[in-house]
Structure formats: C-alpha cells, structure tokens
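Service request form, structural biology core

Requester: graduate student, group of Dr. S.
Request type: structure prediction, single chain
Budget code: on file
Notes: please return the result as structure tokens.

Sequence provided:
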Amino acid sequence: MSLDVQHSRLLQPPPPGGILWQDTGDIRTLLTLGPAFVLQVSHPAVGAGVDDHSAFRTDPWGRGARSVRSVLLWVYGEERAVAEGRRLRALHRTVGGTDARGRRYHALAARTYAWVHATGYPVTRYARPYLWSRPYTEDEERRYFAEWRRVGQLLGIHERDLPETVEEFWPYYRATLKELELTGVAQELLDVRRPLPVPETGPRPVRIAVRLLWPALRPLFLRLRRFLSIGLLPPEARTVLGLPWTEAQERRLRRLCRAIGAVVSRLPHRMRYLPDAHAARVRHGLD
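Core staff response, request fulfilled:
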C-alpha cells in the first residue's frame, strides 16, 4: 500500500451514524464548551496563544460561533472536514511568541496542538452522565475515543502525539495536568465581573429584547457560565487548578443537568440538533 493511500485513509472524517454524529451536534454539547476551553487555556502555551492572538475579548460571541461551526465541520462536514483541518493549521501557523514568564510557545508545537484537541475527550466523558443521564458504555467510550482520535488526524495531529487507546490516554492526561496552571485567560473566562458585549445575533425583535435586558442578563449568564465551566470540569482538573467546588454546588448542578437533559431528550431532532448537524443527519436518513 502506498504512503498516499495510507495518508488518505488517515484523513477520513468520522462515519455518518457513528457516535460523534449522534452526540456532537446535540445542543447539550454546547454546555461542555466552557469547561473544555478552560482546560485548554490552562496549558501555559495555549493560554499565551489565546491571550496574544485570539478575539475572545473583543468578539466573544463571534469567536464562539466560529469554534462551533468548525467542530461541526470536523464531524459532519464529510469532504469539507479535511479542508477545515488544513484551514485551521494554516490559521495557527503564525501563532507564537513568548508567554508572561518568558517561555517560548507556538500553537503548532506537537504537544500544544494535541492538547487542545485531547481535552474534548475527558470533558465529554465526565459531562455525559450529567447531561445525558448515563455514562457511555465501555463499547461506546471506545468508539467515541477512536472517532475523536480520527478527527485529531484530520486536524493534522500526528498519530504519535495522541494516545492510541483509552488505557493509554489516562497516563498522558495525568502527566499533562501537572503542566497546567490557572492562567490569566482561564481566570478571565471564569470571572463573573468581566465585560461582555451584547450578543447581536438572531431576528431583529430578539436582538432588541436582549439589548434592553442585557444589564440584567449579563451577570446571570456569567455566573451560569462559571458554574458550568467548573462543575463540568473533571474533578482532577479542578484540583490541579485550585478551583473551588462544594457539595451544595454539586447537588445544584445535578438538578440543573437533570432538568436540561429531560427537556432536550424530548425535543424533536430539528430542535435538538444544531442546524448544520441536523441537515447532515437528514441527508443520511438519520433524522
């Protein structure tokens, strides 16, 4: 078998009907973005790159929407998934510099680039019993890991830079946790007092209503984001980062997630899945 054929096989997107197609576009997944982002930027190199080069302060809503669209392309984009992976590598080619402690970093350094992708697995695995009311079965977890690793290859992560199996992942994860710190960017993401512009999306009447209500909605949103970002972060990561979490907060989180899960699981698929995911599922006869 030629190297070109082997390479093309590595760059196959996850299969329609697979476990990523089942879960990634579900609106509940949006609630895992906060903890995943906190885990990513707690790596000093990632935090420095975001601090120096990201629009998360000036355009947080746009930045979030672009990230979601990109993830949906990895999973549901089929032939466009490979192009999206190349676009992201090209975008990060010039992201580098020196962090606050004088340490050099580059976004495409192997360990840094792999960590950003790797965080999706432990966060999703931990959050699933809260939001879907049950954990993955062993078979589901192995399929999820294999498909998520396959997405990593689409993004240009070398096979050697991501563990091959679930069993090999956890030593890698624990070792990387020791490198983390509560970076300035991570602290900003959890700060309930930080400035946050009014979201300017949706129909005009909705935008007007949100604009009028934003002084009251902004602190509620920021408190909820902090609550979910810490609560759905795996406990070992909370410990490393020194993030507080009480038994009372845990009880509130479980009640909230049960309510969310009960509502979302009863929605029709056109409302339960994000539009791009639902359209892809309809094309393949999955909805």
